[in-house]
Amino acid sequence: MPTWLIQLAVGVALTALSVLLKPKPEPPKAATFDDLDIPRVDEGTEIGIVFGTMWIESPSVAWYGDFDARPVYPDSNKKK
After folding, report:
1. d(Cα 69, Cα 10) in Å, to the nearest integer?
2. 80, 79, 45, 73: which is closest to 59 by C-alpha?
3. Whole-prediction pTM
4. Residue 65: how many CA atoms within 13 Å on its side-chain side?
5. Would 41 disulfide with which of 13, 35, 57, 60, CB 3.0-4.6 Å?
């Protein structure tokens, strides 16, 4: 039996073994508010208004996005 055939068989067997033994990846979990690093404003804190570009030492966020979890489908933009 030729040596290249033995090497090919060993290579295929090791590849199949590595595919079977690799760990399964965990599915991603949905993000929560605790996972996000958003500075929140406390009740009674003044909210400053900045015009132009400026570095703010303590930013306050009064509202941040719409966190509605809806599935995204590839054909959702088509008009019906």
Report:
1. 48
2. 45
3. 0.36
4. 6
5. 60
- Which one-letter amino acid corresponds to residue 3? T
Residue type, 78: K
Q: If DSSP states are collapsed to H, E and C, what string results for the chain?
A: CCHHHHHHHHHHHHHHHHHHHCCCCCCCCCCCCCCCCCCECCCCCCCCCCCCCCCCCCCCECCCCCCCCCCCCCCCCCCC
> Any idea which residue has 């590849």 for tokens?
15
pLDDT in single tens digits along all 80 residues of the chain: 789 999 999 999 999 999 999 999 898 887 777 777 777 777 887 777 888 888 887 777 777 777 676 777 766 566 55
